[in-house]
Specification:
The strands form 4 sheets. This protein has a 9-stranded mixed sheet, with helices on both faces. Helix 9 packs across helix 12, helix 10 crosses helix 11 and helix 10 packs parallel to helix 12. It has 2 domains: 304 residues, Alpha/Beta hydrolase fold, catalytic domain (Rossmann fold), CATH 3.40.50.1820; 101 residues, no CATH class. A hairpin with a 2-residue loop joins strand 1 and strand 2. It has 12 helices and 16 strands. By secondary structure, the protein is α/β, with parallel strands linked by helices. Bound molecules: 2-acetamido-2-deoxy-beta-D-glucopyranose. The site of 2-acetamido-2-deoxy-beta-D-glucopyranose (NAG) has 4 residues, from strand 13.
Length: 439
């Protein structure tokens, strides 16, 4: 009779010496080595943290190719986020040296090959965030481990510049903007060129992201610069057509930033900004995050994409032909607009304070400004049609959140899907209504 304990020990030993692992991986920049973890019986994963996909970026410049390294790069720690304001916008965190990505590669009995690849673009209003996401007791929000394991896919998460360093623009060639979008594109191109060495299929890449990351995914499908680099895209709660995703008059905010930094606002402005230290530049990009029904927060997110004539040669609505060969899923959550409407009409979050219907009318008036009084009246009638004569406070408050959700997320998402469907051959899906936004 074989002793059961011995059998277990032998099996575990066998499992350990036979751990499926890529070991050292050759990339275009040099060799990298990650960490191999055991997930279960005949289940392992290689994790690579902090692989550079570009050089340290020049200030307000497109990312540059990494010069490469000698020896083996230990890819075992997340690198710093890109320089950004902290939550209270009172100081900064992160570094300009931030163009790194992370890779999770699942293995069964043998080392994986030709796996599908999913590339994650984080959100955070183009102002904040990092490739690894928020960290709670060493649990990183955007760890790719769970998706990689359950889906048997390679997960990649990428860093990109945010805030002024990622998106400040004068609206002309002197400071065209979109640096953060170029970073994302550069990371996607790196994955396309290198992922085969990690067991991935470069012809089966899906780009996905949430909020500003969802809008970023949408921009990556619309730019002419990504042709052939990825096959599929998923936008969660954000598309290029969202009212906050593009700033059509970026110079105004660039001048506000310049004034805060004691820079002139004439033709010496850009030179002065480029000489300013990066932390001050970042802090000067702080936004006032208080809104009102007459001046809603959605119009205050000044650091966003620009129509720069290069990454975005035209209005996003006119670029869907570039996405014709990309399979696309876009969706939103119930109450996605809550964060915004709660800042514009704080009483909706208070059980003790009544919300005046007049506040709702004023918010609708702001959203329908271009359509004049007839537009406002029409919208008001639509949203109150089921109210009856004496709507409860709950009804009024929920209607305001619905209005915000429709304007800020749902209608632009539907519009993007219709435009995608009109231009594309593959299948288009529209999904919403199942989930409620948590934060
Ligand atoms: C990509 O991977 C998915 C999941 O394994 C698979 O269903 C799909 O057919 C693949 N597509 C291509 C183009 O290989």
């Amino acid at each position: 009779m074989v002793n059961l304990g011995v059998l277990v020990v032998v099996t575990l030993f066998w499992e350990t010496i036979n751990a499926a692992t890529l070991g050292v991986v050759y990339t275009e920049g040099g060799m990298v080595e990650g960490t191999n973890i055991r997930l279960g019986f005949r289940r392992h994963m290689d994790v690579f943290k902090g692989i550079p996909f570009a050089d340290i970026p020049g200030r307000f410049e497109k990312p540059k190719r990494h010069p490469g390294w000698d020896g083996i790069l230990k890819a075992t720690e997340f690198r710093k986020r890109c320089l950004q304001v902290n939550l209270l916008m009172t100081s900064t965190r992160g570094s300009e040296d931030c163009l790194y990505l992370n890779i999770w590669v699942p293995h069964g009995r043998s080392v994986s090959a030709d796996l599908p690849v999913m590339v994650w673009i984080f959100g955070g209003g183009f102002l904040a965030g990092g490739s690894m996401g928020a960290n709670f007791l060493s649990n990183y929000l955007y760890s790719g481990q769970e998706i990689a394991d359950r889906g048997d896919v390679i997960v990649v998460t990428l860093g990109y510049r945010v805030g002024t360093l990622g998106f400040l623009s004068t609206g002309d060639a002197s400071l065209p903007g979109n640096y953060g979008l170029w970073d994302q594109h550069t990371a996607i191109a790196w994955v396309h060129r290198n992922i085969r060495s990690f067991g991935g299929d470069p012809d089966n890449i899906t780009v996905f992201g949430e909020s500003a990351g969802g809008a970023s995914v949408s921009f990556q499908t619309l730019t002419p610069h990504n042709k052939g680099l990825f096959k599929r895209a998923i936008s969660q709660s954000g598309v290029a057509l969202c009212p906050w995703a593009v700033n059509r008059n970026p110079r105004r905010f660039a001048e506000e930033v310049a004034i805060k930094l004691n820079c002139p606002t004439d033709d010496r402005m850009v030179a002065c900004l480029k000489m300013t230290d990066p932390a001050s530049l970042t802090l000067a990009g702080s936004l006032s995050l208080s809104g009102s029904p007459d001046n809603p927060i959605v119009y205050k997110l000044a650091l966003a994409a620009t129509i720069d004539g290069d990454f975005l040669p035209d209005e996003p609505s006119k670029l869907f032909h570039n996405a014709a060969n990309v399979d696309y899923i876009a969706g939103i959550n119930n109450m996605d607009g809550h964060l915004f409407t709660g800042l514009d009409v704080p009483s909706i979050n208070s059980p003790l304070v009544d919300t005046a219907v007049e506040d709702m009318r004023r918010l609708l008036g702001s959203y329908t400004k271009e359509k004049g009084k007839a537009g406002l009246d029409n919208a008001f009638t639509t949203y109150t049609s089921t109210w009856g004569t004496n709507p409860s406070q709950q009804t009024i408050k929920k209607t305001i959140v619905e209005i915000g959700t429709d304007y800020i997320f749902l209608v632009p998402t539907q519009a993007a899907l219709y435009l995608h469907a009109a231009n594309a051959t593959p299948t288009v899906w529209l999904a919403w209504g199942g989930l409620t936004r948590a934060g």
